[in-house]
Amino acid sequence: SPRVLSGIQPTAGSFHLGNYLGAVRQWVALQETHDAFYMLADLHAITVMQDPAELRANTRLATAQLLAAGLDPERCTLFIQSHVPEHAQLAWVMNCLTGFGEASRMTQFKDKSARQGADRASVGLFTYPVLQVADILLYQAHEVPVGEDQRQHIELTRDLADRFNGRFGPTFTVPKPYILKETAKIYDLQDPTIKMSKSASTPKGLINLLDDPKVTAKKVKSAVTDTDTVIRYDVENKPGVSNLLTVHSTLTGAGIAELEERYAGKGYGALKTDLAEIMVEFATPFRERTQQYLDDPETLDSILAKGAEKARAVAAETLALAYDRVGFLPAK
Ligand code: TYM
Questions:
Q1: Rounded distance, CA 236 to CA 295, Å?
Q2: Where is the short sequence motif 'KMSKS' region located (predicted)?
Q3: Is the ipTM of this complex over 0.85?
Q4: Ligand 1: which residue has its CA nearest to atom 24?
Q5: Residue 311: Cβ within 10 Å count
Q6: Which residues line ligand 1 (CB under 6 A)?
Q7: Which end of the chain is less enclosed by CB atoms within 10 A, N or C?
Q8: Would you say residue 118 has pLDDT above 80?
Q9: Rounded to whole angstroms, how far apart are CA atoms 27 and 33?
Q10: What angle do CA 326, 329, 332 make, to 5 degrees?
Q11: Residues 324, 318: contact at Cβ < 8 Å?
């Protein structure tokens, strides 16, 4: 079956609603139909300063959340990036194929380095997308399930795969982004023109899945909409309402048209009250399951150990091929 690979940075503590609806939810679905590899991107995490104890705790917490969300280690390979040294090794080769200007044009780098200042931004942050390229190509992934904000990194992956294959002969599968239109970008509840994110959202605009459900309900109920009263999906003119409809529709399976009909003549309050309840119903068992996994570190470790072993088997084979293609003399 076709292969997918994706990753998430294990640094944020709680996943937010954008991570879940934009990516993790698709990962859960794709493990049924694809040979799926999912990764805690701890190498990416240290491109900005991390406290070591916090990084360790957050990596466990992120693993527990992925399992709580429905990843099944019998159906997918779940592993930690730093457990597979081939990521850093292939990244070096890919760095040598990437233009300096090409890397400079990556928008996430430009945003993050602008926020930090040129002298504080690390070279690791600069070369972050190239490490992501290596992540994907090592597994010969056909598709990469992510949110819209990762599209440019997948484009770079395609370019570098083509470049390598052109220069050294067919080696890497050229992957496609797997981005669902409806959930490609989940918006901030207070400013529905920006994406929900740990760094840009205010606390009220950001739904953390592990928040106290009461807090979550409150945030949904105070979401910014517009001065109109009609519940209609219209991203241009009604971004706030459209975002709420998207979240409702994805969590309940109800179609957008069906929801527009259901809420016809009712105010925004009705939609928000229902959605608050839906969110609480989703988040409560999610929190409980996450805690259960955290309480059982031995199971967690053994899942990650098996995952690393499976991942390394694939990654080592691809790296050996790539090393051979570039002309490295094999160690005898
Ligand atoms: P990260 O950790 O920032 O985010 C994890 C996933 O969540 C998606 N996402 C969103 N989707 C919709 N709406 C939002 N508001 C929203 N916010 C976040 C992201 O698009 C992402 O899919 N560089 C990656 C991690 C990574 C990776 C990889 C991904 C490392 N190696 C290889 C794919 C393949 C990142 O920082 O994601």
A1: 45
A2: 195-199
A3: yes
A4: 8
A5: 25
A6: 5-9, 18-19, 22-23, 41, 44, 132, 135-136, 144, 146-147, 149-150, 185-186, 195-197
A7: C
A8: no
A9: 10
A10: 145
A11: no
